[in-house]
Amino acid sequence: YAIPRFHFLRRLLLVHGAWNHDRSVKVILYSFYKNICLYIIELWFAIFSAWSGQTIFERWTIGLFNVIFTAFPPIVLGLFDRPVAADQMMRYPSLYHSFQKRSFSIPRFMLWIGMALVHSLSLFFLSYGFLQTQVVWGNGQTGGWLMLGNSAYSFVVATVCLKALLECDSWTWPVVLASIGHGLDNDDIMDVLAGIVVHTMCYVNMGSRH
């Protein structure tokens, strides 16, 4: 850092140093969490599909997971989260050492990994339980694996966005909008894209029959 005066160094270390350290740790752990929570569902689905190699998610949903659907929560978490107010950090310098104890460690990393595994397992069986009867349409048609995958995907997106909100120590408008608002908008976007994919598949199947 380039600072004009040495008395700026105290605020740079005690406030911004502690904030950036805590934000970096949260973003790293959250990035591992949200990806494991999604992709491990493929493992649970493989067990039920007799290891057929069929993927539960559409390719476009996998590609857009980190690009669109869960892009903003880690960015906002790393920019706007403030564990402690700046004046409190300056008044009680001992808080700086408490943030060092919350640093990135193997036990904390394994805790997040275990939490992601539990969440992925719960979300998969939640979707599987909702579609246990298979008939989901009013005309008697079944949903199939595509409906199962889209349901599980929607649950994952909503869960990981809310998880980012719960990990924030300070709820500001950018954090709330990126977590709750972004999750709700993603459901609408996914419904539109899923509808386009489903209708396209129907037309392709009808054309192949003729």
Automatic annotation (TrEMBL):
UniProt topology in membrane: Multi-pass membrane protein
SUPFAM superfamilies cross-referenced by the UniProt entry: Calcium ATPase, transmembrane domain M (SSF81665)
Coiled-coil stretches: none
Protein's GO biological process: phospholipid translocation
GO cellular component, one term: trans-Golgi network
Keywords tagged on the record: Magnesium, Membrane, Metal-binding, Transmembrane, Transmembrane helix
InterPro entries: ATPase_P-typ_TM_dom_sf, P_typ_ATPase_c
GO molecular function: ATPase-coupled intramembrane lipid transporter activity; metal ion binding
Residue ranges of every copy of the P-type ATPase C-terminal domain listed in the record: 1-181
Name of the protein: P-type ATPase C-terminal domain-containing protein
Organism name: Cylicostephanus goldi
Phylogenetic lineage: Eukaryota, Metazoa, Ecdysozoa, Nematoda, Chromadorea
